Amino acid sequence: MNYTGVRTVEVVVVGAGQAGLAAAFHLRRAGYEPDRDFVVLDHSPRPGGAWQFRWPTLTYDKVHGMHALPGMELTGADPRRPSSEVIGEYFDGYEQTFGLRVHRPVSVLAVRAGEDGRLLVETSQGPYAARALINATGTWDRPFWPRFPGQETFGGRQLHSSQYAGPEAFRGARVVVVGGGTSAVQQLLEIAPVAAATTWVTRRPPVFREGSFGEAEGRAAVALVEERVRQGLPPRSVVSVTGLPMTDAIRRARESGVLERLPLFERITPTGVSWTDGRTVEADTILYGTGFRAAIDHLAPLKLREPGGGIRMAGTRAVRDARVHLVGYGPSASTIGANRAGRAAVRDIRRLLAREPAAVAG
Prior knowledge:
Shape: globular
Low-confidence stretches: 358-362
Helix content: 10-25%
Distance between the termini: 21 Å
Oligomer: single chain
Radius of gyration: 22 Å
Order of helices and strands: EHEHEEEEEHEEHHEHEEEEEEEEH
Number of strands: 18
Structural class: alpha/beta
Largest sheet: 8 strands, mixed
């Protein structure tokens, strides 16, 4: 292949959140040099992955289960500081300590088959030709907006939890919060004290988890998510099978009625929402805490998706192309799972590159 104008590396890592940094750490520990053997591309403006975009009132003491990156603990953090600052600084220090040389902001536009068995990674700063790719793009860039009859007629404000900047914007408003995940609940608890009224609706009854959540329970939850990606189905979040941890704040909110859940409404009206049984709720704002989908559209040219809509995985490897590994996807979409996935991906890629002078699909 004529590589004029194309930078050649062994591995491209796409994304510098928890999973991408863990993978970069293990590549470096295995003897691969940044900017010579591998490159880390991140389209965010600063270190911190998706954490840098979290709302400022999400302080570090409200973060559930932030697992340290490999080789460097997060210590001495002020629990009252915004998690975006604490984790952003931690990730920045991590990149500097291990010399990972993250390139940002760089957007990966498409990944397609190149020549000589390589992958052609097209980016906003030019193309790379790589023998393997570790995709660690997470979900933040693909917030899921549900559709409802009458949605376009609503006269108030509609926003996604990814756009939430704190409770003050909801002061004195009647707010409907849609969704049963962690973000929806955390934001509802912040909004309730300042809003005129709040209504919580979820598609399924929420499950609150009492007591400790040990290693055995964690393995069982991850196994449920892993089974979906083995079948080529779109992954669910690990939280969807673990339930919500019963904290003191959640217990108080349940006792006060803030977390009195209603089933999902049937339609949106110009002034609120309505159910098939005739119930209506007036609203000024609808907040969708409805989660995210995997940000993997740039992989579309490789045709990795199965008929079920997901990418079938064997560990972190895409079954349809052995050169492609997805970390922070499906069962590894948690802080501890991302670390383990980064290590596993590097182990498999080392075998692949050692076995073949140019990696091939299969």
